[in-house]
Automatic annotation (TrEMBL):
Residues 27-261 form the Peptidase S1 domain. Belongs to the peptidase S1 family. CLIP subfamily. Keywords: Disulfide bond, Glycoprotein, Signal. It comes from the Eukaryota. It comes from Culex pipiens pipiens. PANTHER family: TRYPTASE-RELATED. Residues 1-17 form the signal peptide. This is Peptidase S1 domain-containing protein. The keyword Signal applies. InterPro entries: Peptidase_S1_PA (IPR009003), Peptidase_S1_PA_chymotrypsin (IPR043504), Peptidase_S1A (IPR001314), Ser/Thr_Proteases_Immune/Dev (IPR051487), Trypsin_dom (IPR001254).
Length: 266
């Protein structure tokens, strides 16, 4: 039964990819990400959910995935896909046995504590294409990261059509600077300290990119400082020029350690 389920999921993912008119255009205004350059980024298939069919996440330990609460709050069945930036070449399909929403999350307050931890049915097999993410250091608590360059990746919509099917084949990447929360508040009036925002001049995350990582580069290594939570949706979809809102991970390191045992660097 388990092998049959995995086969069905694999075929479903391939079918979604083939049904797209433009498999290379992901994330609004994005470009194709480096092959297997983000081994900690996972896809999350969501069954029978009215709001989402697919989200992203990051592997924080071999047995835990971090994503947004709003993606999985009404979950019925979740399956985590790992092992490739090409959605048709995923090598591991892991069922989720437990969903833990952040204790302060509110379904009625936009973007508050928008985090959830997924416990996998078994630990992911770590290899060159599957690895745990590097999280912020304790010493970075209180850092705004304003002015830092950031990268975001996902298999979400390009924002140019209303009928795009996600996920599509190739992981996409977009790069934008991190802006101040006060500047972000001119677009979104609910911004708090727990948020970190990125400009949208070069494009940005769109539907299906929720739960994906916001990364900075330190000494040649990627550090995930945020999880994508909220983007502007207008008549034209995820419009260029609008800032995107993410959950700031330095505000929630204690919670991550408590529930996963993950090591946080000094």
């Amino acid at each position: 039964m388990k092998s049959a389920l995995i086969l069905c999921l694999s075929l479903a993912v391939v079918a979604l990819a083939i049904n797209s008119d433009n498999p290379d255009k992901r994330i609004a205004e994005g470009e194709q990400a480096e092959t297997n350059g983000f081994p900690f980024v996972v896809g999350i298939l969501i069954s029978e959910d009215e709001a989402h069919a697919f989200c992203a996440g990051i592997l924080v330990t071999p047995g835990h995935v971090l994503t947004t609460a709003n993606c999985v709050i009404r979950q019925t069945m979740l399956t985590v896909l790992l092992g490739s930036t090409d959605i048709t070449r995923m090598t591991q399909f892991l069922p989720v046995t437990r969903v833990l929403l952040h204790w302060n999350h509110s379904a009625t307050v936009i973007s508050r504590a928008d985090l959830a931890l997924l416990t996998l049915a078994r630990a992911a097999n770590l290899n060159e294409n599957v690895a745990v993410a590097q999280l912020p250091r304790w010493s970075q608590v209180g850092t705004t990261f304003e002015g830092f360059g950031s990268s975001m990746v996902g298999w979400g919509e390009s924002g140019h059509r209303v009928d795009e099917v996600v996920p599509l084949q190739h992981l996409q990447i977009v790069r934008n600077p991190i802006i101040s929360n006060s500047a972000c508040g001119r677009t979104h009036n609910f911004i708090r300290d727990e948020h970190v925002c990125t400009a949208g001049d070069n494009g940005g995350p769109c539907h299906g990119d929720e739960g994906g990582p916001v990364m900075i580069t330190e000494a040649g290594q990627l550090t995930v400082i945020g999880i994508h939570s909220f983007h502007f949706t207008g008549i034209g979809g995820c419009e260029r020029g609008r800032s995107a809102v993410h959950t700031r991970l330095t505000e929630h390191l204690d919670w991550l350690v408590e529930h996963t045992g993950v090591y946080i660097r000094p």
